[in-house]
Amino acid sequence: MxxxxxxxxxxxxxxGGCSTPEPVPAPTPAGGAAELPGPVPTDLALxxxxxxxxxxxxxxxxxxxxxxxxxxxxxxxxxVVLTFFNSWCTTCASNQAALSELARSYRDRVVxxxxxxxxxxxxxxxxxxxxxxxxxVVLDDQxxxxxxxxxxxxxxVVLVAKGGAxxxxxxxxxxxxxxxxxxxxxxxxxxx
Length: 192
Description:
33% of the residues lie in helices and 18% in strands. The chain is an alpha/beta fold and 192 residues long. The relative contact order is 0.20. It contains six helices and seven strands, in the order αββαβαβαβαββα. A hairpin with a 5-residue loop joins strand 6 (156-160) and strand 7 (166-171). It starts with a helix and ends in a 6-residue tail after the last helix.
């Protein structure tokens, strides 16, 4: 009985080994176009930007998945928080979980946009996945955007009002509870 089964098992193994395995799709890059915001909520109430606030430096770039990105298109509709970071910044990493959670809580009302400077795309992807970053991220390997915002080292956080007024920047970053308070003070009307 065993001898009769052996040829059948061998034939099945050979036939099974000849089939072409289904290709495994590459994972969607974190920080790409899928993370861009949806429509502006109809109940979004914003404070007007001070008339003395300078215009934020407009920039274009590519998201982590290669999608073209135009910052002015986002801040034309709602406030934007720019987070300047790189994958090897330990301060960035230690603050990222709370910052990611804050970004999720403001989803579509205030858009968070990461700007990864002087970094390798694969290392940025590892950072975004490890820290559950669920907002769009622009790759700035030449640090052109960083220079336009006078960022010397990460982390830095910049707040841009709806319409493009540069409200405030925090070299050295700031923690999520403080950023939450500042968003409520500077851009969101009717928020405690």
